[in-house]
Design goal:
This protein has a domain of 39 residues. The protein has 3 helices and no strands. It is elongated and about 65 Å long.
Length: 85
């Protein structure tokens, strides 16, 4: 086993732990699971980097879900009539 392989295997556990830690907070992790699945598949296809893909996908999915939620909140505020005095 080469030293490069050892380094790669040494990074898998911390990255997996980080992905699980981020995913553990279900209330604040909307989009994480969906993004992690897509990222893991993409990472695997791109060269057996499923764990890295899952971590990046989780972050991207969470960001997109948060952005969508904010847009929906803004639309709700625009639909509400202004209070009359």
């Amino acid at each position: 086993m080469t030293s490069q392989m050892t380094v790669r295997h040494g990074l898998v556990a911390p990255l997996l732990g980080l992905a699980l830690l981020v995913g553990a907070n279900a209330a604040g992790a909307k989009g994480c699971v969906k993004g992690a699945v897509v990222g893991a598949v993409a990472g695997h296809v791109a060269g057996h980097h499923a764990v890295v893909g899952a971590a990046v996908g989780c972050a991207a999915g969470h960001h997109l879900a948060k952005k969508k939620q904010e847009e929906q909140r803004q639309q709700q505020q625009q639909k509400q009539p202004a209070p009359q005095n």
